[in-house]
Design goal:
The complex is a heterodimer of chains A (about 110) and B (about 110).
Chain A: E1 4-7, E2 10-14, E3 19-25, E4 32-38, E5 44-51, E6 56-59, E7 62-67, E8 72-77, E9 86-93, E10 99-101, E11 105-110
Parallel strand pairs in A: 2-11
Antiparallel strand pairs in A: 1-3, 3-8, 4-5, 4-9, 6-7, 7-8, 9-10, 9-11
Chain B: E1 4-7, E2 10-13, E3 19-25, E4 31-37, E5 44-50, E6 53-56, E7 64-67, E8 73-78, E9 87-94, E10 103-105, E11 109-113
Classes of the chains: A mainly beta (about 110), B mainly beta (about 110).
């Protein structure tokens, strides 16, 4: 059974710092991995999608990497801003229809 | 813009009073999903439709039902809401099941049970 873990559960950093969020999964047989952002009381916004054949994806200040064999992904946020404050969720898609989510990392960027 | 729309955004219902949540999509995707997310927890899949084929998760309570009258719309019916059903309900779509396809989420409906 696939399990997804995110570390740390919470993170507080000053504005301008570069930071790394971690996601690990137990079954490496995945099709893809998605990183989402969730603001308090809101739905999920997809940030990046990495297919199993890819090593990384970039969007603006965000870079996500995938090491399928070791069951790990990282989300790198460059030059963090207060507007980046949110919960970040990773989710993997295996050979079934569903996404398996981690419990998220709650990020706070203070001015 | 093509998108996933959920209505209402906030729903308050009374204990035991049936409630229906709505999801629509303009992406023309084959698959529609319903997730339940309780506070500080990961989203949990309740069920999904692949076209008209309904797929229920094994641990989804019988109290939860779903209807998909056409490609664009999907409804979540909670027959007798309990206090434990208060949560954010998220609708998502995907072009096809399995494979490399991305899931697109709506803004969610926050359900309060009084």
């Amino acid at each position: 059974k696939q399990e997804v873990t995110q570390i740390p559960a919470a993170l507080s950093v000053p504005e301008g710092e570069n930071l790394v969020l971690n996601c690990s999964f137990t079954d490496s047989a995945i099709y893809n991995l998605q990183w989402f952002r969730q603001d308090p009381g809101k739905g999920l916004t997809s940030l990046l999608l990495i297919q199993s054949s890819q090593r990384e994806q970039t969007s603006g200040r965000l870079n996500a990497s995938l090491d399928k064999s070791s069951g790990r992904s990282t989300l790198y946020i460059a030059a963090s801003q207060p507007g980046d404050s949110a919960t970040y969720l990773c989710a993997v898609r295996g050979n079934t229809d569903k996404l398996i989510f981690g419990t998220g990392t709650r990020l706070q960027v203070f001015p | 813009d093509a998108m996933v729309i959920q209505n209402p955004r906030y729903q308050v219902t009374q204990f035991g009073k049936p409630v229906t949540l709505s999801c629509s999509q303009t992406l023309n995707h084959n698959v529609m999903y319903w997730y339940q997310q309780k506070s500080s927890q990961a989203p949990k899949l309740l069920f999904h439709y692949y076209d008209k084929d309904f797929n229920n998760e094994a641990d989804t309570p019988d109290n939860f039902q779903s209807r998909r009258p056409n490609t664009s719309f999907c409804f979540l019916d909670i027959r007798s809401p309990g206090l434990g059903d208060a949560a954010m309900y998220l609708c998502a779509t995907s072009r096809d099941p399995g494979g490399p396809y991305e899931q697109y989420f709506g803004p969610g409906t926050r359900l309060t049970v009084t």
